[in-house]
Amino acid sequence: MERQGLNAKVSTNDCKGENISRKRKIAEHRKSLPVASVENLLIQEVHRNNTLIIVGETGSGKTTQIPQFLFNAGFCRDGKAIGVTQPRRVAAVTVAKRVAEECGVEVGQKVGYSIRFEDVTSSSTRIKYMTDGLLLREALLDPYLSRYSVIIVDEAHERTVNTDVLLGFLKKVQKTRSRSLNDSFNTRNTNISGLVLENGNNGKYVSSLRQHRGRKLPPLKLIIMSASLDARLFSEYFGGARAFRVQGRQYPVAIFYTRKHVSDYSEGTLITIFQIHLEESPGDILAFLTGQEEIESIENLAKDKIQKLPESKRNLVIIPIYSALPSEQQLRVFAPTPPGVRKVILATNIAETSVTIPGIKYVIDPGFVKARTYDPNKGMESLIVFPTSKAQALQRSGRAGREGPGKCFRQYPEDMFYKLEDSTKPEIKRCNLSNVILQLKALGVDNVTEFDFLEEPPRQAIFKSLEQLILLGAIANDGKLSDPVGHQMARIPLDPIYSKALIVASQSNCLEEMLITVSMLSVESIFYHPREKLEEARAKMKSFSSPEGDHLTLINVYQSAEEFLNKKKLELSKEKLEKSLRKWCKENFINSRSLRHARDIHSQIRRHVEQMGLPLHSCGDDMLQFCRCLAASFFLNVATKQPDGTYRDCASGEMVQIHPSSVLFRKKPDCVIFNEFVQTNHKYIRNITRIDRLWLSELAPNYYALKS
Ligand code: ADP
Ligand code: MG
């Protein structure tokens, strides 16, 4: 904000001057990065090895520089591209923008990015940053990844489920790529083309086959980059692949612990921010929090507190960063602060290794992270706040010593640190695998248990997830994707249960409503309830609430916002329209960032379903029809009321409660469908709609006839 104000005042000549000096600064910065001194050596290694593992401290320049080295070394000749995968959307976006600037081009030209729901690339893109999940989706259309000469799997140590699956898939592609496509046509890979052709994506794919038939594709170079020191696992998996180490720079970081256990780490974090600000020397602060909701609440509290400081101490700016933040706001963390102003960044664990923020001298680490967990016996997946591992705690404190000696304030006593797990369990061992299985099957891997995983997921989880896909009708009796439902589900970039809901809704003439529902369910916390205005916020929420439940309530919010925008559209410019929507959100206690994210998701999925030819009808005022459609879609998530007012989840038998944020919290209907488990000190279900249990045997006869 401050920067904009300053820029507005400078003349065009000054702007030119500023541009030149910024360019010079960037060039100097690039030269000073640890990877810069090993450029030639690195390129040699890539020429010599088809698979290379690069290990280097966070901030050494791996993500931003290495793709540029490869480009300059000629790896994009013949129009081929370098693909760089990231586990996180934020990293793909911010890094692409930075690298585009370093190259002096507009993002989307030579350097671009592609993440789910946002593609900023063009035919001239040669360095493409993307999420690991997105590359897997691309593989459905181009199973040999023929447009890439090099794939860099970045942040491999994060071990997201998509990274793990991608590594297995790339290993296979590498083997096939050196053979001629004519040969491989007669091998198992026929499966791949067969499926994709059936899938209806054939236009693009057939042409890519024609282009390469009978011709050898160049071998696929694979680079695996990781911040952690343990490269052995990756090296062994790729048949003893060579590991290359980049020497980083790290200054000492003093670690401080609390004397006693901290009962409320949000409060602890807030207090520590102000202690540092008032007592410590200049330098920016980075605090690790667990999610959007927590970040926003601390952001608001901190902003209030700043106002209460004496004028001379108000030189503190609070900047949030998390994955659902609109991308232009994500870049704010990199903007230098004016002299004398201290920046406080409130981040999720994306700032651990994915995004390197300059200027950090102080780190606050409450010691928690939000992560997925899956109970394969019960088939329950939930997001839980866990203690970090030792490796994560070390990564976090390391962020304070990038540019000089720093300090890290851990919000727990020292003996706690020694009790932490050494490293984080890979996600593939603690998540629902139905998405993975669906994707592997779409890629032609029919027997998932035979897939060459870096580390095997639990068998029980595979079977439970397979069972879920069969119940959703995605898998046919022969174990392959069903036609057309399974194929359609694999094409929609959503959780299988949501993809299925869209297909069911298209058949019951309420796809409009279901599209809004899944978009709103894909974002965190639409409503917000500030402590000081609780009653007012509740009253506003009531004005949107539907007696049927949360799904219709969310639709009401979305449609009211659309109505508001439609009314204002004619009189306001785009910018003013956005601003007035933010004002509308504020008045209605709606989280405008979440709503905006939901609207983006909505327009993207809408494009997908339109391309697939699903009829986009609305059921208008026929709420009964929509509720029946919800029951038909989410029949795997049904809970029934018990005499004591708690609920029993029909699938797992687990006892749960309605989450206090639900509009049905006090109403307690007999039978509900829900979309989420939340586990804190209680087990809650969230996003709930009342249904008639008699519908179930009619709408999901296979499942409920078996059950009763
Ligand atoms: P690594 O991948 O080894 O962790 P990066 O290539 O991400 O390192 O970062 C190298 C340097 O570039 C860091 O000093 C970082 O602060 C800087 N940097 C990265 N992205 C941006 C950005 N969007 N704006 C400004 N500086 C950035
Ligand atoms: Mg990096």
TrEMBL record:
Keywords: ATP-binding, Helicase, Hydrolase, Nucleotide-binding. Residues 270-444 form the Helicase C-terminal domain. PANTHER family: ATP-DEPENDENT RNA HELICASE, ATP-DEPENDENT RNA HELICASE DHX33. Its EC number is 3.6.4.13. Gene3D superfamilies: 1.20.120.1080, P-loop containing nucleotide triphosphate hydrolases. The keyword ATP-binding applies. It catalyses: ATP + H2O = ADP + phosphate + H(+). This is RNA helicase. It is an enzyme of class 3 (hydrolase). Residues 43-247 form the Helicase ATP-binding domain. InterPro entries: DEAD-box_helicase_OB_fold, DEAD/DEAH_box_helicase_dom, DNA/RNA_helicase_DEAH_CS, HA2_WH, Helicase-assoc_dom, Helicase_ATP-bd, Helicase_C-like, P-loop_NTPase. It holds the Pfam family OB_NTP_bind. The keyword Signal does not apply. It comes from Citrullus colocynthis.
